């Protein structure tokens, strides 16, 4: 196991603070000082560890994408066929470590700002391409060519809608297990058509 450096620990603290601050104040208005205050440090620390607010935001998004990746890889370990892998993809998008009120809020806000930020736009394209590719690989084995793309789009749109609704909730916490059950139900309906 790799030992964490002080730099790694401080960066993680600033990313945690960014998630909470962006959720509470909004991506467009939160300041480096507010984020730093949440982490118990100064705005100069953000410049020292990340270079800018934009780079902190990119690192925050990378962290969320890494949580998604790790959830997917973990779920793939227990699959043996295309249907199980498709369900693993659906489940990973609602993993307990990812699907929280704060993180859904940040996720939606980041993606809404992606068209205006080169680095976020790049991450958005990579993420969408990766999700699309995963779905297509499994649906290719499960459905005839004429229905695959419709089912893929419907599943992605459903998942995006759940995330958008979660980001707007006033609940103090989400129910990831319920979200996983629901996306599996939607997938079953789409596969049965």
UniProtKB/TrEMBL annotation:
Pathway the protein acts in: Amine and polyamine biosynthesis; betaine biosynthesis via choline pathway [regulation]
Name of a matching Pfam family: TetR_N
Taxonomy, superkingdom: Bacteria
Cross-referenced Gene3D superfamilies: Tetracycline Repressor, domain 2 (1.10.357.10)
Coiled-coil ranges from the UniProt annotation: none
InterPro entries attached to this UniProt entry: BetI_C, Homeodomain-like_sf, HTH-type_TetR-like_transc_reg, HTH_TetR, Tet_transcr_reg_TetR-rel_C_sf, Tscrpt_rep_BetI
Residue ranges constituting the HTH tetR-type domain according to the UniProt record: 8-68
Gene Ontology process terms (BP): glycine betaine biosynthetic process from choline; negative regulation of DNA-templated transcription
MF-aspect GO terms: DNA-binding transcription factor activity; transcription cis-regulatory region binding
Key word Transcription regulation present: yes
Residues annotated to bind DNA: 31-50
Keyword Cytoplasm belongs to the record: no
PROSITE patterns referenced in this protein's UniProt entry, alphabetically: HTH_TETR_2 (PS50977)
UniProt keyword annotations, A-Z: DNA-binding, Repressor, Transcription, Transcription regulation
Task of the protein: Repressor involved in choline regulation of the bet genes. Repressor involved in the biosynthesis of the osmoprotectant glycine betaine. It represses transcription of the choline transporter BetT and the genes of BetAB involved in the synthesis of glycine betaine.
HAMAP family: HTH_type_BetI
Protein's name in the database: HTH-type transcriptional regulator BetI
Organism of provenance: Paramylibacter kogurei
Gene: betI
